[in-house]
Write a structure and sequence with these properties.
mainly alpha
């Protein structure tokens, strides 16, 4: 009855009577439990009980308390389940689900609080699962996946990792766009859109760029499938958002653009949909969707009313939307058969008349309502427009900048409308944007330029000519001309992705005129004036070169000459070196463009380059011939000039010298050579094309003639082309190779002599050497004599010392070596190369020298000289610089891999010892590592007999008195283990006793000097590493032969877990990790039990590690647990160390649980929290190492270790780190991972007794509020809590969580109370604390000031200690 309902509701809102405004968790949770059980027991639905409970649940979810909101969700889920099991009436279903739950759910999904949105997502997922066939949820079923939560959209939207949510949104957006998923307009609006909009309007989410991008994509995908009325509402809504600045302007513009791109009501799309309907592709009834739209529209009207109160503009919006809705409703009611339209177009017409009506309505609405709003926004006057130029502010306001990108939105929208709308509105929009380019404010020009680029990309290249003319009329004087060329360049770059060859032909004349005006006209001089350049960013560099390249890239092959002709005319008429250089650069960029031009075939490129090189291009020479033919003879009828007339006085400066039109023709030749070179280099001309080879053949003689040119650049270009041309199988090369060789040696004589190869000559000499190298390497016939090779060797030897020409020298040396030239000078040159391989400063030089020297050693018959060369390499192991030693080791390692085995057996004694000595003697860690790799590679190459000889040498070092020798023995032994693998077992009898002797802890007790201690630590680390290698390679853990000695070794390793040196205890922990990996906890415990009961006799074939662990397993496990906990407290702890310790602790925890599962339950049932706290406090007070060990030793004898004991110990460590070093989260991360892993291992039923212990540190971390908090720790805590929630169920979890929460609140209240009491009971202590707090505050303030003002030094407070000590009577 009503009394029962009232009681439950009062308890659901209960507060703690002792503490003001504190929620009574216990009472509320029990009330929820009662309500849930009452609902589950219902035979028929009690609406009077359910509705109030539901509203209380909604209120509780809004509170954001985890345990309560979880229980509220559980209650609502039980109502949904009960509704499905009990046969309910249609009215009851509507009251509970549609009118109550769904109303709150729609609001809840839009909540700005993350936890609230996630709780409502859970409810929505439950509704979809419970009612998959209901029309409201039917289309949401494909978004769920109960077998794989990773693929479930709703599960991903609740995920703590933001990138997972972003991925889910992006995936759904793609599926909607590709039509893989079909959702109704209503579902998209009510259940999908809120996930995107809440992220976009949440300031905290702005830093997650991938989430924002995914949300914008989602909005676009949803709008692409909305009905017309709903789309119109959202479009106007986002325009309003942009105008009122509710979100950042950049995001607002991108949102609006995305919505406009999703405009899908153009004639073509609607007609396709109509055809699909008429063809009968959709067969479902249409009525539900009409209802959906009606519901949508109601919601739209409500939202519009809300906005109407906020802004006056929204009145227009709501009336427009209503008008559109009425028309759509009329269109939808017209008869058109029983077939249903696709869901994404729920309100579409069903015949051609309706189609035309709807299209006309849509176009009219956009033309009359949307376009004017956007245009008004674009053309709105700002304050700056009305100010005089002398008082204008230089600072640009946001309102001026934000309106510019709307031009693009307008153009985008008009593309979906008839062509006449575009033609009517586009000129005014473009003129507005071009006018903004004249603005003196840099920011406005940049935004206008970016907008124009986007418009250009959308409209395509056929509008470029119109835009260029508009810009030419607007940007005419001063700095505007610089802006014009800069903008044209960016426009060409912007549309280059969609351009094809020939698209720019109509604009060619305009573009060439603009570019030449910038390069050679009046404004070229302005670019050198600092005043102009500093004020106008666009004037700082010339963009015409880049533009020429783009123009050449997309010009058709017939129009190429029109590009070159104006530049040739400038070359003919100018004597200015500066201008000719500019023309040269322009031609160079044109060549780059032509190479990238897809229209330029190999034939066209070769014809053009041949014409340019031979100065015989038809269109270029035609003009000269015409000039000569134009000069007519004098008319005989005219009287000749009188010789008596006095000639006018000569002008000052004398007669101008005549200009030869051949003066600058070498520039064209060089450009032709460059075109040929680039076409060969970029594979535009292929050797597989026979026609291309025929066309290339005449170039050989032409290039040899060019080598006789007087211009250095022409010769260099010729040589560059020859480098590539010599790789082609051309007949002319064989014919003319002798002539070419002579000409090359002439060039070397003129340009390669000492001091000549500088400036432009340098590139000539380098390329000359490259051509010679190719001839030496490829021409197998004896055209180049031995005498010539000796000359070249001399050049190469000289060039080795010149850092700028070393590269070519190395290439030449390799070519000479490949010819196997044997001359007396060769050995001396190779010795120099070998020294360079070590002493060279550049890595590249050392690599090249190594390659040449090794080629010499391996290919040449050296005989007795080989040992001398090997001794030279060994001697370099003592070179003072690390890079040289590395190079020597690289050479040695290469020789080990490539030498014949016979030679290796002969010299292995000579080579092995110096290499392994480097592992100990060298200072560099990298060299030590390389030496180890080289030594291992040698051991792998030689036979067993030689290996044993080397090993006997290593065993002698074990008995040396010097620590370094024993360390060398351990490391060398490690190399043998890695090289031989399982075969090393034959040496175990020798090695294991030595290891056991060396790692005995007693040897490390009496070390007093620091140097001794340091060397002992290194020695110990080397032997432990050797044990690790033995375990991995020989698997000594499973051996039973040497069980006694191995048992002692394991015991020593266990004692080293407490070693102070981080390397030592880490290696020991890794050894135990390998040991644990080979054992199963269950088998260990069963062996121990059988041994304890005396049933099993001693098994001699049992593996050594297994017998070591099972002996006194209960005590050993506790000792190990204490050791690993001690390691966690190390100040050298890092992520890898922590992970190893946690893996080991996890194994220990499994064993502990198996040893005493019953003991755990007793302990938890007794509730030893207070005792545990006391012991922890006692443990916390003992800071010294010794006291800890003593305490642990006494504990060991007192009570056996349990999993609860271990968990509490680790929780205490986490608590201590949170209190003392909150900014260093490493220890807590490790411990939280351990708790998560243990809870997964224990499973649903076994984890319950440990819940409060696991949750306490997690709750503390979730509720902590210290500054600069690391988010990874909070995320990890939340993940573990979610894991527990899913594994044990909401009900059990919420009770445990509430208990932990209550305990924490009680502690906080007690602490507060004690603090208040202290002021009365111990006023002295309270006063001291207050003074200390005040002092810390002042110090913090001083530190902050020092940080903000680095030069400021705060005064130090005077010390009053002597004053306090003085005795005053």
């Amino acid at each position: 009855g009503l009394k029962h309902i009232t009681e439950v509701v009062i308890k659901l809102n209960a507060f703690d009577p002792r503490h003001l405004d504190d929620i009574d968790f216990d009472l509320r949770l029990t009330a929820f439990s009662r309500a849930i059980s009452h609902i589950k027991e219902m035979k028929s639905l009690d609406m009077n009980f359910m509705i109030p409970i539901m509203y209380n649940c909604f209120y509780t979810i809004e509170l954001g308390e985890m345990s309560l909101s979880d229980r509220a969700c559980l209650c609502l889920i039980s109502i949904i389940d009960q509704l499905a099991t009990v046969d309910c009436m249609e009215d009851e279903f509507k009251d509970i689900i549609q009118h109550t739950l769904l109303e709150s759910l729609k609001k809840g999904l839009k909540s700005k609080t993350e936890s609230v949105q996630q709780d409502y997502t859970t409810l929505l997922s439950c509704l979809v699962r419970t009612y998959p066939m209901h029309p409201e949820f039917q289309d949401l079923v494909p978004l769920t996946d109960y077998s794989d939560p990773e693929m479930d959209f709703f599960e991903n939207m609740k995920h703590i990792q933001i990138h997972r949510r972003a991925r889910a949104l992006r995936k759904l957006a793609n599926h909607l766009t590709e039509a893989k998923v079909s959702l109704s307009s209503k579902s998209l609006q009510n259940y999908i859109m809120p996930y995107a909009t809440t992220a976009l309007f949440d300031e905290k989410m702005l830093k997650y760029e991938n989430m924002i991008t995914a949300s914008v994509e989602m909005v676009g995908a949803v709008c692409r499938h909305l009905a017309w009325s709903a789309y119109m509402y959202h479009l106007k809504h986002f325009i309003h958002v942009l105008q009122t600045g509710q979100i950042s302007q950049k995001l607002g513009v991108s949102l609006l653009v995305t919505v406009l791109e999703a405009f899908h009501f153009d004639h073509k799309t609607l007609r396709n949909q109509l055809e699909a309907i008429q063809n009968g592709e959709s067969t479902m009834d249409n009525e539900p969707d009409v209802e959906d739209d009606a519901m949508d529209l109601d919601q739209d009207e409500e939202e519009e009313k809300e906005q109407e109160e906020n802004a006056l503009e929204e009145k227009e919006k709501s009336s427009d939307a209503e008008l559109a809705q009425q028309k759509v409703a009329v269109a939808a009611k017209k008869p058109g058969g029983n077939q249903k339209t696709p869901r994404s177009f729920s309100s579409l017409p069903r015949n051609k008349e309706e189609l035309e009506d709807l299209i006309q309505n849509i176009q009219q609405t956009v033309r009359d309502s949307v376009l004017p709003k956007l245009q008004a926004c674009l053309t709105a006057k700002v304050k700056r427009d009305e100010e005089h130029k002398l008082v204008k502010s230089k600072v640009v306001n946001e309102e001026e900048v934000v309106r510019v990108p709307l031009a693009f939105a307008l153009v985008k929208l008009m593309q979906s409308l008839p062509q006449e709308v575009m033609e009517a509105h586009l000129p005014s929009i473009l003129l507005k944007v071009c006018t903004l380019l004249r603005n003196r404010a840099q920011e406005i020009r940049d935004i206008a330029r970016n907008t124009l680029m986007k418009i250009m990309e959308t409209l395509g290249a056929h509008y470029l000519q119109y835009i260029l003319k508009e810009m030419q009329t607007v940007l005419v004087k001063g700095y505007q001309v610089h802006v014009l060329t800069f903008t044209i360049n960016l426009l060409l770059k912007g549309i280059s992705g969609s351009l094809k060859s020939g698209d720019l032909d109509p604009c060619l004349e305009i573009l060439v005129e603009v570019f030449n005006h910038e390069l050679f006209g009046d404004i070229a001089e302005e670019k050198e004036v600092k005043g102009i350049v500093s004020k106008v960013m666009e004037a700082r560099s010339s963009k015409s070169y880049d533009s020429y390249e783009l123009l050449a890239q997309f010009v058709s092959k017939d129009q190429v000459v029109k590009l070159i002709l104006p530049l040739k005319q400038i070359l003919e008429t100018t004597t200015s070196l500066k201008l000719s250089r500019k023309v040269h650069e322009a031609l160079r960029r044109i060549v780059f463009g032509l190479i990238a031009n897809t229209d330029m075939t190999a034939e066209a490129i070769l014809l053009l380059s041949h014409g340019l090189i031979s100065e015989n291009l038809p269109l270029l020479t035609e003009k000269v011939r015409n000039k000569m033919s134009v000069q007519d003879p004098p008319d005989p009828r005219l009287q000749p000039k009188s010789c008596l007339l006095i000639q006018p006085a000569p002008a000052r400066g004398g007669q101008k010298a005549p200009i030869s039109n051949k003066t600058n023709m070498h520039v064209l030749v060089d450009s032709g050579l460059q075109l040929l070179h680039m076409s060969l280099k970029k594979s535009r001309v292929n050797s597989s094309d026979e026609h291309a080879l025929e066309m290339l053949d005449p170039f050989v003689q032409l290039l040899i003639d060019c080598l006789k040119s007087m211009d250095v650049k022409v010769i260099t270009g010729t040589l560059q082309s020859l480098v590539w041309l010599l790789k082609f199988p051309l007949p002319s090369i064989e014919k003319n190779v002798e002539q070419l060789t002579k000409q090359l040696f002439v060039l070397l004589k003129d340009y390669a002599k000492a001091g000549a190869a500088k400036g432009q000559n340098f590139h000539l000499v380098v390329n000359c050497f490259k051509v010679v190298t190719l001839l030496v390497r490829n021409m197998k016939s004896h055209i180049i004599s031995e005498k010539q090779l000796q000359v070249l060797l001399g050049y190469a030897e000289e060039d080795i010392y010149d850092s700028s020409r070393q590269a070519t020298a190395f290439g030449l040396l390799k070519a000479i070596l490949s010819r196997k030239l044997v001359v007396p000078e060769m050995d001396a040159v190779m010795q120099k190369v070998a020294r360079f391989a070590v002493t060279g400063q550049s890595e590249l030089v050392r690599v090249q020298c190594r390659q040449i020297y090794l080629k010499y050693i391996l290919d040449y018959p050296l005989g007795n000289q080989l040992k001398k060369n090997l001794e030279f390499i060994i001697a370099q192991f003592n070179y003072e610089y690390e890079t040289g030693r590395e190079s020597a080791l690289e050479m040695m390692a290469y020789l080990f891999q490539t030498f014949p085995q016979g030679l290796l057996h002969q010299y292995c004694g000579l080579l092995f010892v110096p290499v392994v000595l480097m592992m100990v003697n060298d200072d560099s860690a990298k060299c030590k590592k390389m030496a180890a790799i080289a030594g291992k590679s040698l051991l792998c190459q030689i036979n067993t007999e030689n290996q044993d000889v080397m090993f006997s040498l290593a065993t002698t070092w074990f008995h040396s008195e010097k620590t370094s020798h024993r360390r060398l023995a351990a490391q060398t032994c490690g190399l043998f283990v890695e090289a031989e693998g399982v075969a090393f077992e034959r040496h175990l009898g020798t090695v294991l006793p030595l290891i056991e002797k060396e790692i005995d802890p007693l040897k490390f007790e009496d070390l007093k000097e620091e140097a001794e201690e340091k060397s002992a630590d290194r020695l110990l680390f080397s032997f432990l590493t050797l044990i690790t290698k033995l375990i991995k390679e020989c698997n000594i853990i499973r051996l039973s032969n040497y069980s006694e000695i191995l048992s002692r070794i394991w015991s020593h390793v266990q004692s080293h877990l407490w070693h102070p040196h981080a390397w030592v205890w880490l290696t020991s922990a890794q050894i135990f990790g390998l040991m644990f990996a080979s054992e199963k906890p269950e088998e260990l415990v069963s062996k121990w039990i059988t041994r304890k009961t005396g049933k099993a006799q001693k098994n001699f074939s049992e593996p050594s590690a297994s017998s070591f662990l099972t002996e006194k397993l209960d005590k050993k496990v506790k000792e190990l647990a204490l050791a690993f906990c001690h390691q966690l407290q190390s100040k050298f702890l890092d992520q890898s160390l922590g992970e190893q310790v946690i893996k080991n602790l996890l194994f220990v925890a499994k064993v502990l649980y198996l040893l005493a599962p019953d003991l755990e339950d007793e302990e938890t049932s007794k509730g030893l929290d207070d005792d545990a706290e006391e012991s922890k406090m006692a443990e916390g007070e003992d800071d010294t190492e010794d006291s800890k060990k003593k305490e642990e030793a006494t504990e060991e004898g007192e009570k056996p270790a349990t999993l609860m004991w271990l968990m509490k110990k680790l929780s205490f460590l986490a608590k201590r780190e949170a209190a003392r070093a909150p900014k260093n989260p490493l220890k807590r991360i490790c411990i939280f991972k351990f708790l998560g892993a243990v809870s997964v291992h224990l499973g649903k039923d076994k984890v319950k007794p440990y819940l409060s212990t696991i949750l306490t540190p997690l709750f503390r971390e979730l509720n902590s509020t210290y500054a600069e908090q690391d988010p990874t720790l909070k995320n990890l805590s939340q993940e573990i809590i979610d894991l527990l929630k899913s594994s044990i169920g909401l009900e059990t979890f919420s009770l445990a969580f509430a208990a932990v929460q209550k305990q924490a609140n009680q502690k906080r209240a007690t602490r507060k109370k004690q603090k208040a009491l202290q002021a009365v009971a111990n006023p002295d202590v309270a006063a001291k604390k207050k003074l200390k707090k005040h002092k810390n505050k002042i110090e913090a303030k001083k530190r902050k000031i020092e940080f903000l003002r680095p030069g400021y030094k705060a005064k130090k407070s005077r010390s009053h200690s002597l004053k306090d000590l003085a005795m005053v009577e």
